[in-house]
Amino acid sequence: MVLVFDLDDTLYDELSFVRSGFKAVAGYLAENYRLPGEKLFSFMLCRLKIKRQFIFDDTLREFGIFTRRNVQKCVSIYRGHKPDIRLYPEADRFLKSFKDLPKYIVTDGNKLVQQNKLDALRLGGRVDYCYLTYRYGLKRAKPSPYCFFKVCERERVEPTGVIYIADNPNKDFVGIKPHGFKTLRVRKGQFHEIRKTDEFEADFQIDSLRDLTLPLLRKIFGNRETAK
Ligand SMILES: [Mg+2]
């Protein structure tokens, strides 16, 4: 039984990363342009509620300092900052109590950003390996099963011995289910309300990692697998 976790919105609240990034950007702009940091920060948060694109463009325009270069600078501060984020308490508890099971992470996204998150959450020492899919090229990102087969190779197991625990039915499960990987959806984060067709949905669903228990894993894997 090999457990593979997604990162964003599965092990921690991704919005907390966004807020942390906005804080870093607001701090930079406040310092370099003598602008009110709190106002910059709350503008970005309000703007986020409308849509998640061009937030820095709009913020810089609002405060009268828009240039392409400044947008680039904001993006690089956002991506490079050391995030102030924490694991969901139930994720932390799970990792503690299931220490002996092989555990992996497979996550999409900018390599630097994802690595900063893993470092901030101190996950490196708590799982066997973290696969940042973008390291292997964009076409290896989910829904590609590429990194999941790497887990199989490393653990010398078939896909049926591996479960992916993740939150986004748009891309997390559809590519790996046909190969026999087990799938479990955690209804957390920005996708928690969406419903997809069976092809995209996980085999099992839970509301929180609190519900990820040994009896549930036994049910998903069948008792024979669990005994190994
Ligand atoms: Mg996710």
Explain what the structure shows.
With 228 residues, the protein is α/β, with parallel strands linked by helices. The chain has two domains: 155 residues, Rossmann fold (3-Layer(aba) Sandwich); 67 residues. Helix content is 43%, strand content 11%. The chain has nine helices and six strands, in the order E-H-H-H-H-H-E-H-E-H-E-E-E-H-H. It has a six-stranded parallel β-sheet, sandwiched between helices. Helix 1 packs across helix 4. 34% of the residues are buried. The mean pLDDT is 96. Bound molecules: magnesium ion. The site of magnesium ion has 7 residues, from loops.
List keywords for this structure.
alpha/beta, Rossmann fold, 43% helix, binds magnesium ion, 228 residues, six-stranded parallel sheet
Write the layout of secondary structure elements.
Layout: E1 2-5, H1 14-33, H2 37-50, H3 55-62, H4 68-80, H5 89-97, E2 103-107, H6 111-120, E3 129-132, H7 146-155, E4 162-166, E5 182-186, E6 204-206, H8 214-221, H9 223-227
Parallel strand pairs: 1-2, 1-4, 2-3, 4-5, 5-6
Helix pairs in contact: 1-2, 1-4, 2-3
Helix content: 40-55%
Which structural category do the helix and sheet elements fall into?
alpha/beta
**Overall strand count:** 6
Number of domains: 2
Strand content: 5-15%
Gap from first CA to last CA:
7 Å
Write a short abstract of this structure.
This protein is of the alpha/beta class. It has helices at 14-33, 37-50, 55-62, 68-80, 89-97, 111-120, 146-155, 214-221, 223-227, and strands spanning 2-5, 103-107, 129-132, 162-166, 182-186, 204-206. The chain folds into two domains: 2-13 and 85-227, HAD superfamily/HAD-like (Rossmann fold, 3-Layer(aba) Sandwich); 14-80.
